[in-house]
Design goal:
751 residues; globular; alpha/beta; binds fe (iii) ion; Alpha-Beta Plaits; binds zinc ion; 4 domains; 10-stranded mixed sheet; DHBP synthase
């Protein structure tokens, strides 16, 4: 006895080959009926035998196309229409504003096989794609997602491509960027004036890279600067031109086999690297690495990615070793996307340009991830992930949150969704601030958003704060930085119940105007109360102290000791500079009180001799972590003063013990491990005390310091051992890249 069902599917189900997938599935399971797009997803009318319908229905979820994300599937009985076959129905107003836009996706296996198949008509065509892969978010000018509204508009499909595009049974049915050598984009290899050079563009680029030259390569979300990762001279030249002293470069290898020549890649990391989103994954260096030391000096890991466009595959195939693939920009500027823009901005950085004529509408840097405590975590969430929303277990009013200053992202909320932008960058940079405005306008118009209120950081000097207050034209609300961190973690982990919220961070403007960053809160997202914090130390010279860890060390030493003890790291400090800093602390001039955990890391790093001055954010802390001997179990004494309100976590006993170890000649590896162990002990002890007081047994961990794998993993395991439920970031970074989500959620739920 045949029956009829109405199946509604919500999520990312449009523009990802979902209807042809349903069409093929229906035929396989002998289902008749029809499928169409609607304002809120895909609607399927299905008729068939009971058992066939059941297997059809379960296959929808279990076999969905790679780009689809099903957030809801509902089924109800329906009237029988006695369809004779299964149809894909053309619908008016096909893609509504409720549609979720797919992120850009790395090349799929089918396309990859065609790329290297000499018999295929797209053999070695660098822009091969299908409904399961290729550019999406980065080529969309407007919704609906239709070719004329993308940067594929200037390319008219040849008859063969058009036939694929029109055939529901074809893998390229409605694949908007569909193209072939006859009708699609093409490559160009130019000099720094944009003059095309003779010869095959791809082979010329490979030859230049082999010669140690730097080539700007146009990718999916922007330009990379590429050079041979084994060529020390080329790397040092790239560092010199970029003005980038020590910050690690990401590398790309043709496949896992070649990547394993220089990096230790576990099976789990391999899965992450091979995923269609193709993030950069931080993996341990191999002891006998084939790469130049200048790729990631002072680090124990490399950022490694596999090719994600056909062009990358063709480039890397011809290259035995890995290529450094770093964002095409000067320090902290947004990545270049436009050909003319790239030529003017990257002229002094690159020797040659490998470009194409498919425009990038919206830039997106590479996403950076690492597996910590068994899960993949974001250090930077961008290409392959944005603009996929985080689903929040609450009804959110429409809010725009403009994020902090560094690692800025913005976030829009609507319904149960929080749309977090790709990585925007450091807003102190003028171009990044331009991109910030651009992306607010773009997301607002593409998703037809009408925020009621703008949420911003409390820091009055942040450009994002200034934009909110002076330019947004909307009511505003200031959200304290670390409360935003904690709320971000709660929303990210899908729980808004009250927590003990730990924010260990570099810098954030506090309620009292001090620089916070070692904070423990208690409560729900909208009423997070400051329960405990690292005791304040006077930080001489504010921002400058963050660039000069030795100043943090002097600050902590003067809090812990009467007279600053003589230590090896002070020998290289200019005597008058030291005297000035001491004077500033004594007289309390140009100092800022801080409870920052990041600055405590800096202080310890300087005291043990890691470094006195940094060239990129968190460098000293990262190097301190990298050298820790993880087998060491010892720790230092600490004190939590629960008589004060909020409770004070006193760092002095810890600093005194570190100094004692340095003077005894204990190695930096051991001191670093003991320091990490002490922080774990402090935080878990504070949680135990707060649980006793409040009855709350759920802990949320957020803030940039949790990028520290050693600290994060030890603390998670310690808290779980003590029976805490631990909420951690899974979809957005723990660092400032996740702050806009927390701002948005607090503002959307508050009154
Ligand atoms: Zn494909
Ligand atoms: Zn074609
Ligand atoms: Fe922060």
């Amino acid at each position: 006895m045949p029956e009829a069902r109405l199946i509604r599917v919500r999520g990312i189900v449009q523009g990802v080959g979902f209807r042809p997938f349903i069409y093929r599935l229906a035929r396989k399971h002998s289902i008749s009926g029809r499928v169409r797009n609607s304002g809120s997803g895909v609607i399927i009318e299905a008729e068939g035998e009971h058992a066939d319908l059941d297997s059809f229905q379960s296959a929808i979820s279990s076999q969905a196309p790679p780009l689809a994300v099903i957030t809801e599937l509902t089924v109800e009985p329906a009237q029988q229409n006695r369809f004779s076959s299964f149809l894909i129905e053309k619908s008016e107003a096909e893609e509504s504003v409720d549609t979720l836009i797919s992120p850009d996706i790395g090349i799929c296996d089918d396309c990859l096989n065609e790329l290297f198949d000499p018999a295929d008509r797209r053999h070695r065509y660098p822009f091969i794609n299908c409904t399961n892969c290729g550019p999406r978010y980065s080529i969309i000018r407007k919704l609906p997602y239709d070719r004329p509204l993308t940067s594929m508009a200037p390319f008219t499909m040849c008859p063969e491509c058009q036939r694929e595009y029109d055939d529901p049974a074809d893998r390229r049915f409605h694949a908007q960027p569909n193209a072939c050598p006859a009708c699609g984009p093409s490559l160009q290899f130019t000099d720094t004036e944009g003059e095309p050079l003779p010869g095959d563009p791809l082979l010329s680029a490979i030859a230049a890279l082999r010669e140690g030259r730097i080539v700007a390569v146009k990718g999916l979300g922007g330009f990379h600067l590429a050079c041979d990762a084994a060529n020390e001279e080329a790397l040092l030249e790239l560092r010199r031109r970029k003005g980038r002293v020590g910050k690690p470069f990401a590398v790309m290898a043709f496949d896992l086999e070649r990547a394993r020549l220089f990096a230790e890649i576990t099976e789990e990391d391999a899965v992450l690297m091979l995923s269609p989103r193709r993030p950069i994954v931080l993996v341990p260096k191999r002891s006998a690495s084939t790469l130049s030391n200048a790729v990631a000096p002072g680090q124990s890991s490399y950022g490694v990615m596999l090719p994600y466009t056909p062009l990358h595959y063709l480039l890397l195939e011809g290259f035995e070793c890995a290529l450094v693939m770093t964002s095409g920009n000067f320090c902290e500027e947004p990545i270049a996307i436009d050909n003319a823009e790239a030529l003017s901005r990257l002229r002094s950085l690159a020797d040659y340009f490998l470009m194409h004529d498919r425009d990038i509408v919206l830039r997106a840097d590479d996403t950076v991830m690492r597996r910590d405590a068994c899960l993949p975590r974001h250090a930077r969430r961008s290409r392959g992930y944005a603009p996929q929303p985080v689903f929040v277990p609450a009804e959110l009013r429409q809010v725009l949150a403009v994020g902090p200053e560094l690692k800025n992202t913005i976030c829009f909320t609507r319904g149960d969704r929080a749309f977090i932008s790709q990585h925007i960058g450091d807003l102190q940079n003028l171009e990044a601030f331009g991109f910030f405005r651009e992306i607010i306008d773009h997301l607002r118009s593409v998703f037809e958003l009408e925020p009621e209120i703008v949420a911003h950081d409390l820091h009055p000097d942040y450009l994002s704060t200034g934009w909110a207050l002076e330019e947004s034209g909307l009511p505003t609300v200031g959200i304290q930085h670390h409360r935003a961190h904690v709320a971000s973690c709660m929303a990210d982990a899908g729980s808004l119940e009250p927590v003990i919220g730990i924010a260990l961070d570099g810098t954030g403007f506090g309620d009292d105007g001090a620089i916070w960053g070692g904070e423990i809160f208690i409560g729900g997202p909208c009423d997070l109360e400051r329960a405990a914090h690292l005791a304040y130390v006077p930080l001489p010279g504010g921002d400058a102290a963050a660039r000069e860890p030795w100043r943090c060390a002097v600050a902590h030493l003067s809090s812990a000791f009467h007279e600053i003890p003589s230590l090896p790291f002070l020998e290289s400090i200019d005597a008058s500079a030291l005297a000035t800093i001491k004077k500033m602390i004594e007289t309390d001039s140009n100092t800022h009180l801080t409870s920052s955990a990041g600055r405590l890391f800096d202080a310890v790093a300087a005291i043990v001799g890691v470094r006195n001055v940094i060239s990129y954010e968190a460098q000293a802390a990262m190097e301190l972590e990298a050298l820790a001997d993880s087998r060491e179990t010892g720790r230092y004494p600490f004190e939590i003063d629960t008589t004060a309100e909020p409770w004070q976590i006193r760092p002095e006993p810890l600093i005194v013990a570190v100094v004692r170890d340095v003077r005894k000649g204990v190695g930096a590896a051991i001191i670093s491990a003991r320091f990490h162990n002490t922080l774990v002990a402090i935080m878990s002890e504070a949680c135990i005390l707060l649980k006793k007081k409040s009855g709350i047994g759920r802990v949320a961990l957020s803030g940039g310091v949790f990028q520290n794998k050693l600290l994060f993993e030890k603390l998670v395991s310690e808290l779980e051992k003590k029976d805490f439920e631990v909420l951690t970031h899974r979809q957005v970074p723990a660092n400032d890249g996740g702050v806009s989500l927390g701002q948005a959620v607090i503002a959307a739920l508050g009154d």
